[in-house]
Design goal:
Number of strands: 5
Order of helices and strands: EHEEEEHHHH
Strand content: 5-15%
Helix content: 40-55%
Distance between the termini: 52 Å
Oligomer: single chain
Strand order of the largest sheet: 2-1-3-4-5
Structural class: alpha+beta
């Protein structure tokens, strides 16, 4: 790795950018941050061009051309998706707990005995009372789908 330069921005060691379909070894390198996968469909310069993105710095999330004169800031879409999923899971969990605390024991027993989802019954109750107007829901989610996720979490909690 001595021929791979350090990042001009932060002076940390960079890694090679991989453009081809990764095999198991390359996937392992990507997961270990020993190389950076930029994808197959990235439009890029000719392989021999000094403008071709060749190096990546994981520390500042920049990718550089072979001559280090051109750089792009990479989007960490997987990191964003993981964060969004975690936030969604937390919202679903919190709203399921709120619904469980809001409903009568008889309703809980009815849900246990008839667990099939009813959009026009319990689903609308969840949507109208706990989803609409909720400022904690940052991402654009279809309310009926979210009510179904909450319903499934409620069942998971009251059946266990």
């Amino acid at each position: 790795m001595s021929n791979i330069p350090k990042c001009p921005n932060c002076e940390k060691q960079m890694v090679i950018v991989w453009y081809h379909e990764p095999n198991e070894i390359i996937e392992e390198f990507i997961n270990e941050k020993k190389c950076f996968y930029r994808g197959l469909d990235i439009k890029n310069e000719d392989r021999e061009s000094p403008n071709r993105i060749k190096y990546h710095c994981y520390n500042c999330n920049r990718s550089y051309s072979s001559d280090l004169k051109k750089h792009v800031v990479e989007i960490d879409s997987m990191g964003f998706l993981k964060k969004a999923q975690k936030e969604l899971d937390n919202i679903v969990n919190e709203l399921a707990d709120r619904v469980i605390n809001d409903i009568e024991e008889s309703t809980k027993e009815e849900l246990k005995s008839k667990p099939e989802y009813s959009h026009f019954g319990f689903g609308l109750y969840i949507r109208n009372k706990f989803i609409y107007g909720n400022d904690k829901i940052k991402y654009r989610l279809e309310a009926d789908h979210l009510s179904h996720l909450i319903y499934d979490k409620i069942l998971e909690k009251i059946l266990n």
